[in-house]
C-alpha cells in the first residue's frame, strides 16, 4: 500500500519540531511520500495524485491540529493520525523548551515512529468518532451601530438562516451565529432534535426560545443526528456566551456533504448577508 | 470622529432612586423608537460602566448625548470617563423643574403627568439630536415619510425631507414640529395648512415663490405623520 | 417617595439595563419589593452612582446586605456592587426566571406585557422573602 505523510508546520513549538522529525523518520521507514503542508495549502493540485493514490498519515504537533484540518478540508482519506502533544503526556517526559530537537524530543520521535509502524499493519480498531473541535481564534467582525458580530474565518460555513456548520471526519457540528444569538438575546430554551433522527439539508434541527422570539434551527447539512450538546440543554445561556464554541447545539453525521456545501456560504459571503440584515432591522 | 455621522449615541442614567431616573429612561426609549429611530442608538449605562467594549467604542466614534435624572450627572460622568467628551448633556430636573413632582418611579403607577413629563423630555432630547447632527455632519437620519418606513414598534418614521420642485429639502426636526402641531390639534387638511406653514417657518426659511409647493408637500407629510401618531387630547 | 437606605435595611439594586426587557423587569421587580412587598426592610440605590464612587452609595453597600437583580448573565449590578466592596448576599438573574415560563411574551424594554408582570412579580416575591430573612438576621445581630 502506498502511503503519504503530512505533518503540521509547527515552527513555534517543540512539539512541531517533533512532528516534523516523526514525518521524516516515518517516510524513511515505510517509503512514503512527504507532503509539505504549506505547498498543499497553496497548490493542492500538486499533491492530487499522491492523495488519491496513497493512504495518508497525518502528524500534528498540538491540539490545533492544523494538518488534520487541512487534510479534512481537502477531502483526503486519513488512515492514521498522530498527535505529538498526546504522546508527550503519555510518555510522562517533558520536552525541552527549545525549538531544535534535543534528546527528549528525539527519543519521543523514535518512540512515536516505532509505534506507528507497529500499528500500520495491524487492522484499524473501529472507534467511536469523537469530534475534536476547537474554539476558533480568528474572526471577521461586522459592525453595525454599537453592535459587533463575529464570524470565524476558518472551517465554518453558514446558511442564510444564521446557522453554522463545521465539518470534521464526516461529522458536522452545528450552532447559531453570533449575529443570531445577539438578535435573540438571552436564550432560555433549547428544544433539540432526537438523536438518530434523519434530517435533510434545510430541514429542522430543533428550536431555540428567548424572551424575544422562537427560532427554528434550519439544518445546514443533511445527515443523521449523532449528538446533542448536553451543556446547552442545562444552560442555554452558553449559546449566547460562546455561540461558536461551547454553545454548539448538535452534531450530524453527514450523508451528502460535498453537495450540501455548494449551497452554504463562506464567512466573507455570510458577513455581507449580516450587514444587509442588520441594516434592515 | 467620522465626518459623515448619521447616528447619535444616547446614554441615559439609570436613576433607580428617583422618578426623574425613570423619566430619563423612558424619554430615551421614546426618542429611539419613535422620534429619531434612524438617527439614534441607545447605550446601556450599566454595561458601559462595566466595561463593555462595543458600547464604549461606539461612544468614542460617534457624538453622544447624555440624559441624567439629577445634578449628580452619572451618565455624563460615565461617558466622559470611559469614552470622552459628550456633545450635549441634559438633566431632567433642568428641563422639567417642578413638573416632575408627583411623578412615579414605577410604570405601575404611571398616569398622565408621568407621560407628559416623558414626552417633554423626549422632545428636548430629539431637538438636541438634530442640533448635534447638524453640527457634526450631513443629517441623513430620516427619510421622507412613507408608509413603508416603520420602526420596530410599527410607528411611522418621522420625516426630515421634502421634495420641493424636484429637489430634496432637509428640514431638521420636522417630526418634532409635526408633533407640536398634533398637540395643538392642527388638522391634517387644507384648513390646517396656514398653521402648518407657520409652524415650519419658525425653524426653516420658506422662499415666497415656493410657498405653494411647501404647502402641498408639508400637508402630505403631515397627513402620513398623523396617520401613525397618537391623537392629541 | 425616596427610599433612602435606613439602618439595617437590605439594599435591592437592579441593573436597569435599557436595551432589553430583562433590564426593565429588574427595575420593576425592585420597585415592587421596596414600595409594596417589603417597604420597611428594603431600600434601593442608583447603580451608576455607586460606580461613580459616590461616598454615600459606597458606604451604603458596604454596610448593608445587598440583593442584586440583573437582567442577564452579564451581571452588571452584581459585579459593580462587588467591585465597590459591597456585600452581595443574593444575586438574581431575570433571564433564569424565564426557564419556568415557556412561551411567555414579556413585552419589550419600554413596557411590560402581562406575562412580563407575572414573571416580575415572581422575582419580586422571591427577593422580598430573601430580604425579610436577611433583615431578620441583621436585627438579631443588633
The quaternary structure here is heterotrimer
CATH superfamily of the largest domain in chain A: RNA polymerase II/Efflux pump adaptor protein, barrel-sandwich hybrid domain
Integer tally of domains of chain C: 1
The proportion of residues forming helix of chain A, as a percent range, comes to 25-40%
The percent of residues in helical segments of chain C reads: 40-55%
List keywords for this structure.
heterotrimer; A: 281 residues; alpha+beta; Rossmann fold; OB fold (Dihydrolipoamide Acetyltransferase, E2P); 2 domains; six-stranded antiparallel sheet; four-stranded parallel sheet; 11 helices; 15 strands; 35% helix; elongated; C: 142 residues; alpha/beta; 6 helices; globular
Helix-strand layout with pairing:
The complex is a heterotrimer of chains A (281), B (233) and C (142).
Chain A: E1 3-7, H1 14-30, E2 33-35, H2 37-42, H3 48-53, E3 55-60, H4 66-73, E4 78-83, H5 84-91, H6 103-120, E5 139-144, E6 147-152, E7 156-158, E8 163-168, E9 171-176, H7 178-184, E10 187-191, E11 198-199, E12 204-210, E13 214-218, E14 223-228, H8 230-234, H9 237-241, E15 250-254, H10 257-261, H11 267-280
Parallel strand pairs in A: 1-2, 1-3, 3-4
Antiparallel strand pairs in A: 5-6, 7-8, 8-9, 9-15, 10-12, 11-14, 12-13, 14-15
Chain B: E1 8-12, H1 19-35, E2 40-43, H2 45-49, H3 53-61, E3 64-68, H4 74-82, E4 88-91, H5 92-96, H6 112-136, E5 161-164, E6 167-170, H7 174-183, H8 193-201, H9 211-228
Parallel strand pairs in B: 1-2, 1-3, 3-4
Antiparallel strand pairs in B: 5-6
Helix pairs in contact in B: 1-6, 7-8, 8-9
Chain C: E1 10-14, H1 21-37, E2 42-43, H2 47-52, H3 55-63, E3 65-70, H4 76-83, E4 87-93, H5 94-97, H6 114-141
Parallel strand pairs in C: 1-2, 1-3, 3-4
Helix pairs in contact in C: 1-6
Amino acid at each position: 500500500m502506498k502511503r503519504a505523510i503530512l505533518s503540521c508546520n509547527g515552527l513555534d513549538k517543540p512539539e512541531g519540531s517533533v512532528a516534523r522529525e516523526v514525518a521524516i523518520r516515518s517516510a524513511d521507514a515505510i517509503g512514503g511520500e512527504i507532503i509539505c503542508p504549506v505547498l498543499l495549502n497553496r497548490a493542492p493540485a500538486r499533491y492530487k495524485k499522491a492523495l488519491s493514490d496513497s493512504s495518508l498519515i497525518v502528524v500534528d504537533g498540538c491540539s490545533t491540529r492544523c494538518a488534520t484540518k487541512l487534510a479534512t478540508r481537502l477531502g483526503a482519506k486519513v488512515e492514521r493520525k498522530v498527535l505529538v502533544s498526546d504522546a508527550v503526556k503519555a510518555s510522562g517526559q517533558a520536552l525541552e523548551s527549545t525549538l531544535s530537537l534535543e534528546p527528549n524530543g528525539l527519543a519521543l520521535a523514535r518512540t512515536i515512529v516505532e509505534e506507528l509502524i507497529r500499528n500500520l499493519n495491524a487492522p484499524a480498531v473501529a472507534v467511536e468518532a469523537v469530534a475534536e473541535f476547537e474554539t476558533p481564534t480568528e474572526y471577521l467582525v461586522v459592525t453595525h451601530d454599537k453592535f459587533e458580530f463575529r464570524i470565524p474565518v476558518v472551517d465554518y460555513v453558514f446558511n442564510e438562516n444564521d446557522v453554522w456548520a463545521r465539518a470534521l471526519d464526516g461529522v458536522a457540528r452545528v450552532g447559531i451565529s453570533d449575529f443570531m444569538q445577539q438578535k435573540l438575546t438571552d436564550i432560555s430554551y433549547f428544544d433539540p432534535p432526537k438523536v438518530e433522527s434523519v434530517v435533510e439539508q434545510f430541514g429542522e434541527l430543533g428550536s431555540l426560545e428567548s424572551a424575544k422570539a422562537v427560532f427554528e434551527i434550519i439544518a445546514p447539512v443533511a445527515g443523521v443526528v449523532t449528538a446533542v450538546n448536553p451543556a446547552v440543554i442545562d444552560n442555554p445561556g452558553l449559546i449566547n456566551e460562546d455561540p461558536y464554541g461551547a454553545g454548539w447545539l448538535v452534531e450530524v453525521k453527514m450523508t451528502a456533504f460535498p453537495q450540501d456545501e455548494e449551497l452554504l456560504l463562506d464567512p466573507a459571503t455570510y458577513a455581507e448577508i449580516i450587514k444587509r440584515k442588520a441594516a434592515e432591522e | 470622529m467620522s465626518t459623515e455621522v448619521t447616528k447619535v449615541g444616547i446614554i441615559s442614567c439609570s436613576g433607580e432612586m428617583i422618578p426623574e431616573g425613570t423619566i430619563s429612561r423612558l424619554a430615551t426609549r421614546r426618542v429611539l423608537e419613535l422620534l429619531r429611530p434612524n438617527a439614534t442608538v441607545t447605550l446601556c449605562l450599566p454595561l458601559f460602566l462595566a466595561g463593555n467594549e462595543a458600547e464604549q467604542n461606539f461612544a468614542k466614534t460617534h457624538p453622544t448625548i447624555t440624559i441624567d435624572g439629577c445634578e449628580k450627572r452619572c451618565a455624563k460622568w460615565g461617558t466622559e470617563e470611559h469614552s470622552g467628551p459628550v456633545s450635549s448633556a441634559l438633566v431632567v430636573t433642568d428641563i422639567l423643574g417642578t413638573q416632575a413632582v408627583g411623578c412615579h418611579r414605577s410604570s405601575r403607577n404611571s398616569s398622565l403627568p408621568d407621560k407628559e413629563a416623558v414626552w417633554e423630555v423626549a422632545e428636548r432630547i430629539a431637538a438636541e439630536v438634530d442640533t448635534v447632527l447638524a453640527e457634526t455632519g450631513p443629517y441623513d437620519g430620516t427619510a421622507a415619510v412613507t408608509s413603508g418606513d416603520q420602526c420596530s414598534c410599527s410607528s411611522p418614521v418621522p420625516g426630515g425631507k421634502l421634495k420641493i420642485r424636484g429637489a430634496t429639502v432637509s428640514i431638521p426636526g420636522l417630526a418634532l414640529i409635526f408633533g407640536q402641531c398634533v398637540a395643538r390639534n392642527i388638522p391634517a387638511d387644507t384648513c390646517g395648512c396656514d398653521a402648518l406653514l407657520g409652524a415650519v417657518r419658525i425653524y426653516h426659511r420658506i422662499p415666497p415663490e415656493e410657498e405653494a409647493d411647501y404647502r402641498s408637500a408639508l400637508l402630505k407629510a403631515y397627513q402620513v405623520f398623523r396617520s401613525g401618531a397618537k391623537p392629541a387630547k | 417617595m425616596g427610599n433612602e437606605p435606613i439602618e439595617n435595611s437590605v439594599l435591592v439594586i437592579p441593573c436597569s439595563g435599557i436595551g432589553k426587557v430583562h433590564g426593565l423587569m429588574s427595575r420593576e421587580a425592585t420597585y415592587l419589593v421596596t414600595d409594596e412587598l417589603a417597604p420597611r426592610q428594603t431600600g434601593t440605590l442608583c447603580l451608576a452612582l455607586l460606580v461613580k464612587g459616590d461616598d454615600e452609595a459606597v458606604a451604603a453597600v458596604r454596610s448593608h446586605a445587598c440583593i442584586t437583580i440583573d437582567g442577564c448573565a452579564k451581571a452588571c449590578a452584581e459585579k459593580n456592587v462587588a467591585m465597590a466592596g459591597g456585600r452581595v448576599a443574593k444575586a438574581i438573574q431575570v433571564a433564569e426566571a424565564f426557564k419556568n415560563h415557556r412561551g411567555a411574551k414579556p413585552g419589550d424594554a419600554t413596557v411590560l406585557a402581562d406575562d412580563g408582570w407575572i414573571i416580575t412579580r415572581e422575582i419580586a416575591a422571591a427577593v422580598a422573602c430573601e430580604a425579610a430573612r436577611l433583615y431578620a438576621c441583621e436585627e438579631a445581630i443588633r
